[in-house]
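User: Hello, can you help with two protein structures?

Assistant: Certainly.
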Amino acid sequence: MSSKPSKDLETFDNPNPGRDYTIRIDVPEFTCLCPKTGQPDFATIHIEYIPSQKCVELKALKMYMWSFRDEGAFHEAVTNQILDDLVKATEPNFMRISAEFYVRGGIYTTVVADHRNPDWNMPELVTLP
């Protein structure tokens, strides 16, 4: 196998750092292990962020997400770890991670975690007619 899971999150320079815009990424094949039973947990991870100076490189993100496959993690912990790691790598103006875990024992779990740069002023919402 030529690719391996990795915790390294590569970035590249934001091509439009003077403009607030949103990047949305969906990762529908996220897996980790239940820390209690060792059974696999499956989730779709939704990433939304407004970059500042850096954007996350998608192949590196794919390898990063893959790195959780054999790790035990509570849903709440892994969602916040993903947010913390992505914020550390990209230093965005805003980032939200929504982790939608598939049914386990008749229960669905969704965990949402946000980060906001305290020096960033959110643009005014534009409502179109």
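That covers the first. Now for the second protein you mentioned:
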Amino acid sequence: MHISIYGITDKGAALNINEDRILIDGKVYDSGEVEALVTEPMIAAVCDGVGGENCGEVAAQMCLDELAKVKYSSLTDLKSVVMDIHEKLLKEAQRDKQYGNMQTTLCLFALDEKCNSCCVNVGDSRLYRYAGGVATQLSTDHTLVRYLYDMGEMTAEEMKTSPDRNVIISSVGGDSQIPKLDVFSIGERFGTLPDDTMIICSDGITDHVGRTEIEVCMGLDVPFEDKIDAIYRLALSRGSCDNLSVIGIAGEC
């Protein structure tokens, strides 16, 4: 399968550094736009260093540097891979105190040599699948407000305005608890649906661009990379004060 990937990562309009990182075609990027044409097996991912903790950008870089070393195949256990990365971040923080409690989110999409999908999410970056004009969120946010919503203690509207909406309760590298990893496949085989596209976003995007807006951007009569760029620019125009990262992965069997 021929797979087109286009990604953007940017510090945004309000911050001096970018704590986001993106992984495309085996390389990690901390700024700019990236285009690649790849075949399976492949991994694409977004990391967002946790704000308010030490060296989030270091955690994000280390996480994806380690993931980039993986020779992915149907024999790879991605859950074990991510847990090993978590342990490496903890050891690095113990070795060098300036990195104490450094943390990052991780959201990834992988295809093995048989085109079987595997996704891993920890934190509040998001994975969507766009097909047939419809965007569906596949990942679940590991946030305090999502937890309270699932417990019936908060409404969907309260989630949107809560001052705790960006408080995450699971991450790679956090020293307070073992990360909760969601590992799942996407259902119908990737590339079999009309305009089949996976979209990975950091919360700098999703705090300002929802599922409906993603559908509008992806439905534009423009080249693929301009559709992904439109998602980024919409978040920026709506006043996102965070780092922004988005990756689009398009394939057709």
